[in-house]
């Protein structure tokens, strides 16, 4: 779906690389979690994928086609992103208008627009706030609306850049469950950015970033095997990993399996 080939990027010429020779491909329909501590380059990477940061070196391919000045809008048409900070993402006067806005831009018939808006707001548990002003919502509620706006578009690629950071653990789990459903039903390609290793359990693939570079990639079991590298990348190991390391030779276990084994 998306392939990055030797991507490098600097914000300023005299600074270190914000992205340091990144080569990776994100397969169609895969859920990839990109994990790294503060400043490791995650947001820079997704901003380049979305075309917000330009002037990078290296190549980006979408469905095998190289991204150029001429085709970039066309190739990114089916990408949607939810940013870290929901405040800059609202365009509508009400929650409902806001979610419908992107659909209106696609020239969608009114009936379908209403149906998709209601469906997306229902998914994130914000139906009761349809007529509220987005600016008057709490941080977590804003994030839910931002996620609904992206989901309503039914994008082929959905990127979430720490978009659940303001949600409580339960709300975060709700969003992960919603993504799981989307991923299963619509075959959406998901790039889930986080610094929290407890959030990666549904991903097909995990990419660990540190200092602008990819230091590890693999499935969850492979990530579990590399605890030293995770620690070196300043990531906090979840308790399942720590206990598994101490008692189970470091094998991958879910919460439930761990409880069973103990
Ligand atoms: N607008 C900017 N101008 C200059 N430097 C920047 C800018 N944005 C990010 N950087 C630098 O680029 C590097 C990578 O930042 P980036 O925002 O991509 O990290 P991140 O992994 O998303 O971190 P976080 O977890 O804090 O969101 C950091 O060293 C940061 O200081
Ligand atoms: Mg970031």
Automatic annotation (TrEMBL):
Localization: Cell membrane
Record keywords: ATP-binding, Cell membrane, Membrane, Nucleotide-binding, Translocase, Transport
Gene Ontology CC annotations of this record: ATP-binding cassette (ABC) transporter complex
InterPro entries (alphabetical): AAA+_ATPase, ABC_transporter-like_ATP-bd, ABC_transporter-like_CS, ABC_transpr_CbiO/EcfA_su, ECF_ABC_transporter_ATP-bd, EcfA_1, P-loop_NTPase
Coiled-coil stretches noted in the UniProt entry, renumbered to this chain: none
Pfam families linked to this entry: ABC_tran (PF00005)
Membrane topology, record value: Peripheral membrane protein
Keyword Flavoprotein listed: no
Protein's UniProt keywords contain Repeat: no
Domain called ABC transporter: residue spans: 2-236
GO molecular-function term, one example from the UniProt record: ATPase-coupled transmembrane transporter activity
PANTHER family reported for this sequence: ENERGY-COUPLING FACTOR TRANSPORTER ATP-BINDING PROTEIN ECFA1, HEAVY METAL TRANSPORTER
Homology family: Belongs to the ABC transporter superfamily.
Name of the protein: Energy-coupling factor transporter ATP-binding protein EcfA1
Gene (name only): ecfA1
């Amino acid at each position: 779906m998306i392939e990055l080939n030797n991507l490098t990027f600097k914000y300023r010429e005299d600074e270190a690389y914000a992205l340091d020779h990144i080569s990776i491909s994100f397969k169609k329909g895969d859920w990839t979690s990109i994990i790294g501590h503060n400043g490791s380059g995650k947001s820079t990477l997704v901003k380049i994928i979305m075309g917000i940061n330009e002037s990078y070196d290296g190549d980006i391919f979408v469905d095998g086609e190289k991204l150029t000045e001429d085709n970039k809008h066309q190739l990114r048409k089916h990408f949607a992103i939810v940013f870290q900070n929901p405040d800059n993402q609202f365009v509508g006067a009400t929650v409902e208008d806001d979610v419908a806005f992107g659909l209106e831009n696609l020239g969608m018939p009114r009936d379908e627009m209403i149906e998709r808006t209601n469906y997306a707001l229902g998914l994130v548990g914000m139906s009761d706030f349809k007529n509220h002003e987005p600016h008057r919502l709490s941080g977590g509620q804003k994030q839910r609306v931002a996620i609904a706006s992206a989901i309503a578009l039914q994008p082929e690629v959905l990127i979430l850049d720490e978009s659940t950071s303001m949600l409580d653990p339960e709300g975060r789990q709700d969003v992960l469950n919603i993504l799981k459903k989307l991923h299963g039903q619509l075959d959406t390609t998901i790039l889930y950015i986080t610094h929290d290793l407890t959030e990666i359990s549904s991903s097909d693939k995990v990419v660990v970033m540190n200092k602008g570079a990819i230091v590890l990639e693999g499935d969850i079991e492979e990530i579990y095997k590399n605890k030293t590298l995770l620690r070196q990348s300043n990531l906090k190991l979840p308790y399942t990993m720590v206990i598994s390391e101490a008692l189970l030779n470091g094998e991958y276990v879910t919460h439930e399996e761990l409880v069973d084994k103990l």
